[in-house]
Design a protein that fits this description.
By secondary structure, the protein is of the alpha/beta class. It contains eleven helices and 18 strands. It is globular. The chain starts with a strand and ends with a helix.
Length: 397
């Protein structure tokens, strides 16, 4: 069985759905293939997003997929002191906690409304080549093998991406560039649901614990631990259990869902394109190395890939040299911040609890007008001048 399309998108997460939509908007014949039987599940995500970028992909905030809106975030040191980042300091970066499965389905509906076709329970088993050039992919759908010929393949197959490897793009990760995660959704808990909370220090080696509120008494409570710090199976879950057990407001909660997974915290990879192929989202390794947030970057790359795919089709040129335009666009937009945050991550993972305590204490006591790199440095210099060099290293100065 063989099918023909202009664009084949492998993976129907935020990046894949956005890419399919923007390619289909131009009239391209697009197939969106998703290995799971339904879009958006299982959810492996903290479900927190900022607001600012949604209009960039033409998404209006909707009560259908927004569970809760927060006023900001609090960053806790190991001794319990915290720095509050509210809308006054962070501007429009404050955001929403979403129902990720419903958000993904909303993106998929937009793609289908634009003309993309969707096949669920359909996984890629390899790429098709002619004369060394990718010409599509072999899919397995409902027990049958389907060869899909396409002028362009967009790999949106997530953290565990195979498309990049099959296309000869280096996407492998070192243990220090991966966070292993575990998360509960807890109900019956207490706390300030106006802020999402981040806890730094040794209770989450090389990562952090998060509490993302989905309502007055319900939140996603999870942990990310640097894979190079994992010593035994199940360690991330045990560390999270220990963290929760020491906090009465969380320990009284009841579990209604639990998920585990991993995400990349690496520097930008060398390339995300080759002849006939573009990688987007987690497959392109554009998750923020400090926060672990990936939805915004995934959608931005998805939009760019869909638009460049349409241009390549119109030009009749899907070569690596033509698709390099996609590389330039997304790197101009995101690469500097991703690389800077990777360097920040590299430094933060070496910090002791005492260092975290001092830095958070300094910035929480400071009289802020507006959050900026220079003001963070001034705050630390004012209270702990001996930490100036450390903070400059974190901020990439």
């Amino acid at each position: 069985m063989a099918l023909e399309y202009d664009v084949l998108v492998i993976g129907a997460g935020p990046a894949g759905c956005t890419a399919a939509r923007y390619a289909a908007d131009t009239g391209a014949h697009v197939l969106l293939a998703e290995k799971r039987q339904e879009i958006g599940t299982p959810v492996r995500c903290g479900e927190g997003i900022s607001k600012r970028w949604l209009d960039e992909i033409g998404m209006e905030p909707s009560g259908r997929w927004i569970a809760h809106e927060v006023d900001g975030a609090r960053i806790f040191s190991p001794d319990g002191s915290f720095f509050e980042v509210d809308e006054k300091l962070a501007g429009n970066e404050c955001g929403f906690v979403i129902e990720r499965d419903l958000f993904d389905r909303a993106l998929a509906k937009r793609a289908i409304s634009s003309g993309a076709e969707l096949m669920v329970r359909t996984s890629a088993t390899g790429l098709l080549h002619e004369n060394g050039v990718v010409t599509g992919a072999r899919l397995r759908s409902f027990g049958k093998t389907v060869d899909v010929r396409a002028k362009i393949v967009i790999g949106a197959d997530g953290y565990e991406s195979q498309v990049g490897r099959w296309a000869g793009i280096e996407t492998s990760l070192k243990p220090k560039d991966v966070d292993s995660c575990f998360q509960y959704t807890l109900v019956g808990i207490e706390g300030d649901c106006g802020f999402n909370d981040f806890y730094l220090g040794s209770h989450a080696p090389g990562g952090y614990v998060w509490v993302f509120w989905k309502g007055r008494d319900i939140a996603n409570v999870g942990i990310g631990v640097q894979l190079s710090r994992i010593r035994e199976k199940g360690q991330a879950r045990r560390l999270l259990d220990n963290f929760i057990s020491k906090r009465e407001e969380l320990s009284r909660g009841r579990v209604i869902e639990q998920v585990s997974g991993a995400y990349s915290i690496c520097a930008p990879i060398e390339r995300t394109t080759t002849d006939g192929v573009m990688l987007v989202g987690d497959a392109a390794r554009v998750t923020d190395p400090v926060t672990g947030g990936g939805i915004r970057n995934a959608c931005i790359l998805g939009k760019l890939a869909g638009q460049i795919a349409a241009e390549a089709l119109e030009a009749g040129d899907a070569s690596a040299s033509f698709l390099a335009k996609y590389e330039r666009f997304w790197r101009d937009r995101l690469e500097e911040a991703l690389y800077r945050n990777w360097m920040v991550k590299e430094k933060l993972t070496t910090y002791t609890d005492e260092q975290f305590n001092k830095i958070i204490s300094a910035i929480s006591d400071y009289d802020w007008e507006k959050l900026s790199v220079l003001e963070i440095l001034n705050a630390v210099k004012e209270k702990y001048p001996e930490l100036q060099a450390d903070v400059e290293a974190i901020l990439g100065m």
